[in-house]
Amino acid sequence: MAGKAGAAPQKVDLLLSGCDVVTIDDRNRVIRDGAVAIRGNRIVWIGKASAARRHVTAASTLDGAGQIAMPGLIDAHVHTAQTLLRGKLAEIGLRRPIKIPPWKNYYIPFEGMLTDEDVHLSGLLCYANMISVGTTCFAEAGGPHPDAMGRAAVEIGIRGFVALSTVDQGTNVPGSMIATTRQCHDRNVALVKRWKGASHGTDRVQAWLSLRQIMVCTPELIEGMAEAARALDVKIHTHLCEGVYEIDYALERFGKRPAEYLHGLGALDRHMHCAHSVLLSAEEMDLFVRHRPSACHCAFNNYHIGPHRLSEMWRRGIDIGLGTDGAASWGSLDIFQVAHATRIGQQAVMGTPIAYRNVMGSEEILKVATNGGARALGLENQIGSLEVGKKADILLVDRTQLDHMPLYDPYFVAANTVVGRDVRTVVIDGKVVMKDRELLTVDREEIDRRLAERLPKLMERFDAMTA
């Protein structure tokens, strides 16, 4: 970490100094009263603040006193276009029973209503919200108008992968959300190519392929997308083993469980990102270990489905991160809170039944939210920990609140008591995008104005459509 003895200080663009540095690297190093130096979009030096002046000369310095510097969190499964539905199903539930399953009766119909500008607005709200609670990178599950999501992400300054909701079969699917098998394939491939590399002025925002669920995607589409993913070297974002209905569908039509079905089509490999993955059989878990698809645990929702075995997946080397599942389903986009819920759920599911008190500690679950998310997204060599050479996606988190005191171990505080609203400053790709809780890349008043203008019209249509 330190420079060579006697060497002239290297010039850097930004220095975070005086903070407790929680690296979440392979050794879980914590540097009290430390400093992190950034040049361009990468970390070039980490050490004690007292040594920084000997090793770096900074064009700009952020005072990190009373704060923890840590890697940005990663939301490995979010529905950008559903942000405008936050709390809406709960409000409907006060008036009439909710139709099951919600994704089919509410989420997809709502997405089918949205225009390009609606999704851009939803993206601005979603990604600004993410940054404000410490999320610096996301993986979009697949929604309408993904280019609008990409534009919003570029403007906000967040890192992420956008994707197109992809459906080529199914009943009661809005016409705007379904296409032929060839159209689905070609639109996905074209999206990935449009957002490849730095084609939009930055490589922060790129695109993945997407398959909504096996019930609404034909075998031909799944096989074609798997081939495209290998050719383009990108991932396919899908929902897998999310409900009993999905398992019944696969068994009835193919005589196989969902992961077995994907494996039979040649689609279950490192290019497949399987959100939820709750109801995996022992054989399906073995397939994950052997063929290396990545996964995402959305704790706010997954424990409603079944006993998610995150700790087993993590210990068996499966690339798995944490996700919110978007604002519509639970409300919060705070991965810190997802991690806390994950800890409680894993204890209840995997520990308490066998009288094992600490099946997965909070610090390890925070590692899933950072290192694990990076692995799941194929970015483990770029983000997910604070290390020299990695991209500078960094949080400065307040550690002076009463619920953080006394402070013996900054890693313990970051994992157990910090929540999103404790995040003070956010650096993404070497750029400060939030400072002292002020978002620097978005006009909050403009977002509020557009919401006030557009939401009433959208909700009037949505209420009529779902009555």
Quick gist of this model?
This protein is of the alpha/beta class and 467 residues long. The protein is built from 16 helices and 18 strands.
Q: Level of helix content?
A: 25-40%
Number of domains: 2
Question: Superfamily at the CATH H level of the largest domain?
Answer: Metal-dependent hydrolases
Count of β-strands: 18
Radius of gyration: 22 Å
Average pLDDT score: 95
Low-confidence stretches: none
User: How would a textbook summarize the main sheet?
Assistant: 9 strands, mixed
**Helix-strand category:** alpha/beta
Task: Report on the architecture of this protein.
- The chain has 2 domains: 10-71 and 392-439, Urease, subunit C, domain 1 (Roll); 73-376, TIM Barrel (Alpha-Beta Barrel), CATH 3.20.20.
- Helix 4 packs across helix 16.
- The model has no long low-confidence stretch (mean pLDDT 95).
- The protein is an alpha/beta fold.
- The N and C termini lie far apart (60 Å).
- It has 16 helices and 18 strands.
- The strands form 3 sheets. Strands 1, 2, 3, 4, 5, 15, 16, 17 and 18 form a 9-stranded mixed β-sheet that branches. A 5-stranded parallel β-sheet has the order 10-11-12-13-14. The chain has a 4-stranded parallel β-sheet with strand order 6-7-8-9.
- It has helices spanning 49-55, 88-93, 102-113, 116-132, 146-156, 181-194, 219-232, 244-254, 258-264, 282-291, 299-305, 310-315, 335-351, 362-376, 410-416, 444-466; strands at residues 10-22, 30-39, 42-48, 56-63, 67-71, 73-78, 135-140, 159-162, 205-207, 209-211, 236-240, 272-276, 294-297, 320-322, 394-398, 423-428, 431-435, 438-439.
- Strand 2 (30-39) and strand 3 form a beta hairpin.
- The chain is globular and about 70 Å long.
